[in-house]
Known about the structure:
It is built from 7 helices and no strands.
Amino acid sequence: CLATLIIMLVGDTYTLINYVSFINYLCYGVTIIGLIVLRWKKPKIFRPIKVNILIPMTYLAFWAFLLIFSLYSEPVVCGVGLIIILTGVPVFFLGVYWRNKPKCVNRLIESVTCWGQKLCFVVYPQCADAEVE
């Protein structure tokens, strides 16, 4: 989020759209790869919608073409898009992966989460002051 705000202040909107579109293409492809891996590793799992395997494989082929073409035609934009994605890695390790955090770090994460919920009107905040009301 911070990287996006910096890009919006420094760059133009067209460049930001290019960064986000590359990130979206990358995430869609990884999702389809996950679907195919799950169908291979866990074939008996319940699936409310069943699709012929040729559909995700065809999509994946087109996705690979678009991704390779994007990497070839605009490597800087793709590189910045990857850097934007990688800015989430420290947040993941701080918030999710690190299990035995000190109480002060947990309180900080909870307060940032509550502030973000209030700012974006995403969900009803589950903060300490909400419990008092």
